[in-house]
Amino acid sequence: MTDQIAIATGAIVCADTIIHGQVTIGTGTVVHPQCRILAEKGPIVIGQNNILAECVTIINTSEEPLVIHNYNTFEVGSTCAGRSVGNHNVVEARGRILSGTVVGNHCVVGPMCATAENDTLEDHTVVFGETMNRRTQTSNPKAQFALYAKHLKYLQDLLPRYNHLRKATA
Amino acid sequence: MELPVVKYNRSHYIETDTGNKVSRKSVIYGSQNITLSGKTIIQAGCVIRGDLRRAGGGQTLVIAIGRYCLLGENSVIRPPHKTYKGVFSYYPMKIGDYVAIGENSIVEAANIGNHVQIGKNCIIGRFAIIKDGCRIEDHTVIAPNTVIPSFSVYSGSPGRLVGELPECAPEMYEARSKEFYSKFMAT
């Protein structure tokens, strides 16, 4: 399968990444070095203003598209093989979204936690702890969002100074 | 327990004047902001983010690593971040002497003391402070902002205190770090 990589202007995608297949990356998204975005069969669509830290793997092995909406954070070493991810979600270090999973909005997958296969995470779900307990988040997302916006802005300024970037294609 | 001799291919590692051994397969960004004090081994696949530096000019040291440290394969060392007085910034990370970090561990600590052993597959959260002479067991998740007192053993997810180390632990870890370094030989 030939690579069709569309990177919007304003997206910061480091050159030191592995991107295969049909991948679309929206404006404002920051992809740290050492990320892997592998669209093996169906396409991967990444929306606007997401942060993908290093060693993140986004993989789509199904025919259907994998859609990641806006303002999501994927921390170091996390994996996403799900069907879709909503807005404002956080996948902590080495968290895993397994294949076929649909993630809502404002969810948190804790460090080393995983969802089940073909699972659905309702809005505001938190997956945490050794036994992957679940609860519903009650904290105010606005404060978190203010921090997120600053983090994104900082990375957009800083990463181009130290890393080579892939050129925007769309 | 005596450690085995580990042989490596000379062409796979770069050895510096101060005795640091850095794998050519490790990935180091912003190397001008990283200091290695000497005799530190950085193994293959290790990712060190020296590019995530503090906002504004001035002091640019991001990661300081002491002597006789070992950074295991595929470990990730990245500085912690937070907003302070409304300004977002990454903050420097300091790692002491005789610190061993196991394979596949992710470290975002603010400070790691001397004589610390971190196991495999650990996650050390943002701004964690690990004092001198501690052990973090394999597969432990240390929550952000945790302060780990000296001579403690932490395990689990989230990491909890599970035991204490004897007073001789620092000497033991120091001897072990030196032994590992001396037996890490080029062929």
Automatic annotation (TrEMBL), chain A:
Keywords: Cytoplasm, Cytoskeleton. The keyword Cytoplasm applies. One of its GO terms (biological process) is mitotic spindle organization. Gene3D superfamilies: Hexapeptide repeat proteins (2.160.10.10). The keyword Cytoplasm applies. GO terms for cellular component: dynactin complex. Its main location: cytoplasm. It is found in: Cytoplasm, Cytoskeleton. GO terms for molecular function: dynein complex binding. It comes from the Eukaryota. InterPro entries: DCTN6, Trimer_LpxA-like_sf. Part of the dynactin complex that activates the molecular motor dynein for ultra-processive transport along microtubules. Belongs to the dynactin subunits 5/6 family. Dynactin subunit 6 subfamily. This is Dynactin subunit 6. It comes from Dispira parvispora. The lineage of its organism: Eukaryota, Fungi, Fungi incertae sedis, Zoopagomycota, Kickxellomycotina.
UniProtKB/TrEMBL annotation, chain B:
It holds the Pfam family DCTN5. The keyword Cytoplasm applies. The keyword Lipoprotein does not apply. Keywords: Cytoplasm, Cytoskeleton. InterPro entries: DCTN5, Trimer_LpxA-like_sf. It comes from the Eukaryota. Transmembrane segments: none annotated. One of its GO terms (cellular component) is dynactin complex. It is found in: Cytoplasm, Cytoskeleton. Belongs to the dynactin subunits 5/6 family. Dynactin subunit 5 subfamily. This is Dynactin subunit 5. It comes from Dispira parvispora. The lineage of its organism: Eukaryota, Fungi, Fungi incertae sedis, Zoopagomycota, Kickxellomycotina.
